[in-house]
């Protein structure tokens, strides 16, 4: 179990705050998980100073030490996936199986990047000038601030923290205020490793105070952020005057094309899983289902049946497939989108209602809209809700055009038996991650992840591509000289 701390971790020490925030279980609002410290601008200053002082020694400690620390973190996360996954499910609301799976996946990120710490292979080149050798190597960017969201409170920070540490950087992490228990659990594991004080720091607190102070600080070398487009733009505006390196994963409005030759049972199952898994609170959720007119009505019927068959309940109860929405504010926003869709003329086929359960919580039935147009608000804005919208298309070409008509470009999928359509889609869909006969949600940790347009800014995350953000390239020219 965790040691019971609810404090920040700065410069190698657990530190309380002037204020604390109540952490409430969205499955049962009478269940208070704890009261967690809120940092302030002084904590931000101390954390960045500690990170800057510690980073050179961490880089100099060598690849074996970094490998061993990350391997230990990853192994413990995987071994404790059941325990920590239950804590995650309790505070964030995703079903227990998903919570356990997320923690295990977080462990895999650390073990993967433990191996990457050893795979420090540079490049050698001959100069165009005789008698000169060229050496190209990667070095850490320096001090990295990580700002992570609540929907994957351990996996998302893991895929940022692990490469940051593997490549010799120091970290200041600001997690989402809705999920502090998961942040503390991960920090406890990291804090037990053989890391110098200040290499890793946790500063919890509200974005308007702690987050704003962090991203505008001149002592940072890089910022990795996952969250909304609005917040991302604010971070960019604050970081650019300091020339701080940026990596941002932001909004999405992911399409899934259902073609007239698709296996409709498989298509409905994949669409329902992608749209409603994690209560729709995924950046990879399928929120626009663009369906060929020849199979539109049959698909809508199957999708509606699949949505209504899902069991909505307490995240820790056996049999729950869809947990609660993360907060009362999020639930109110979701229901407001239901009203917007109806006002725009969309037909609510099923769901979209607040649900009562044995425990008071933020429950909502998965919703399917049909008769929607791509210019409707519900098809333009990321709702982050268990709501999906069906758009009718007369052909593959029309469906592709609709799919590409978006400010976003994170993930996209197609359900088809046609190899030529699948290949055309892969070549012409403007998104960072494409799925063929698969849900739009669900990615691997050893390959790059990211999007286009308003979905992403800066280098890709995950896999070997992570080195582009967490390192800087140094090119050295060396005169060979004459032997004595």
Automatic annotation (TrEMBL):
<keyword id="KW-0560">Oxidoreductase</keyword>
<dbReference type="InterPro" id="IPR015590">
    <property type="entry name" value="Aldehyde_DH_dom"/>
</dbReference>
<dbReference type="GO" id="GO:0016620">
    <property type="term" value="F:oxidoreductase activity, acting on the aldehyde or oxo group of donors, NAD or NADP as acceptor"/>
</dbReference>
<dbReference type="InterPro" id="IPR016162">
    <property type="entry name" value="Ald_DH_N"/>
</dbReference>
<dbReference type="InterPro" id="IPR016163">
    <property type="entry name" value="Ald_DH_C"/>
</dbReference>
<feature type="domain" description="Aldehyde dehydrogenase">
    <location>
        <begin position="17"/>
        <end position="475"/>
    </location>
</feature>
<dbReference type="InterPro" id="IPR016161">
    <property type="entry name" value="Ald_DH/histidinol_DH"/>
</dbReference>
<dbReference type="Pfam" id="PF00171">
    <property type="entry name" value="Aldedh"/>
</dbReference>
<protein>
    <submittedName>
        <fullName>Aldehyde dehydrogenase family protein</fullName>
    </submittedName>
</protein>
<comment type="similarity">
    <text>Belongs to the aldehyde dehydrogenase family.</text>
</comment>
